[in-house]
């Protein structure tokens, strides 16, 4: 199941659940925002972002700032399904470059993004209340 579709507002709770569950399953990621707060963040950005989902209810989602060419979120319930690649292929359509931030401890994500042509361009401490060091990665056609 890799059928991507644009998210509707009805998908927002499921997207928040995917991200929230990832936080719960990731030992190095502290819980800073509740599921409800995550839902609020997604809802507040909804009109300014391209949000794509896979599944009904959503099992994976990606949020892209179309003006900045920045991937703000990419979360999948299951790895190895081809969902992340499908999302990145969609994000690359019609663009010459993309950027994203990933957490420094997230080696698996970094390997995946590198396979998809992204390269590290810097590291930074996140804006509080976030706590985990972030790595900027960029892709150019």
Q: At CATH's second level, what is the architecture?
A: 3-Layer(aba) Sandwich
Structural class: alpha+beta
Stretches with pLDDT under 50, minimum 5 residues: none
Query: Taking all residues together, what is the mean pLDDT?
Result: 97
Rg over CA atoms, rounded to whole Å, is 14 Å
What is the helix tally?
4
What is the highest CATH level, the class? Answer: Alpha Beta
Order of helices and strands: EHHEEEHEHEE
CATH fold field value: Aminopeptidase
Give an overview in words.
The protein has 141 residues and is an alpha+beta fold. It has one domain: Aminopeptidase. It is built from four helices and seven strands. A seven-stranded mixed sheet has the order 1-2-3-4-5-7-6. α1 crosses α2. The relative contact order is 0.16. It comes from Pseudooceanicola antarcticus.
List keywords for this structure.
Aminopeptidase, 141 residues, 7 strands, seven-stranded mixed beta sheet, alpha+beta
In short:
With 141 residues, the chain is an alpha+beta fold.
List the helices and strands and how they pair.
Blueprint: E1 4-6, H1 12-25, H2 35-45, E2 50-54, E3 60-65, E4 70-76, H3 83-92, E5 97-103, H4 107-115, E6 119-124, E7 134-140
Parallel strand pairs: 4-5
Antiparallel strand pairs: 1-2, 2-3, 3-4, 5-7, 6-7
Helix pairs in contact: 1-2
């Amino acid at each position: 199941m890799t059928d991507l579709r644009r998210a509707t507002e009805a998908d927002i709770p499921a997207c928040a659940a995917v991200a929230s569950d990832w936080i719960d399953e990731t030992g190095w990621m502290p819980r800073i925002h509740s599921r409800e707060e995550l839902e609020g963040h997604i809802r507040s950005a909804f009109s300014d972002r391209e949000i794509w989902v896979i599944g009904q209810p959503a099992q994976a989602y990606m949020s892209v700032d179309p003006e900045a060419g920045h991937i703000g979120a990419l979360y999948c319930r299951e790895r190895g399904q081809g969902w992340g690649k499908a999302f990145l292929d969609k994000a690359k359509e019609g663009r010459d470059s993309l950027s994203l931030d990933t957490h420094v401890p997230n080696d698996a994500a970094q390997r995946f993004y590198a396979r998809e042509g992204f390269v590290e361009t810097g590291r930074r401490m996140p804006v509080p209340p976030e706590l985990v060091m972030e790595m900027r990665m960029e892709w150019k056609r």
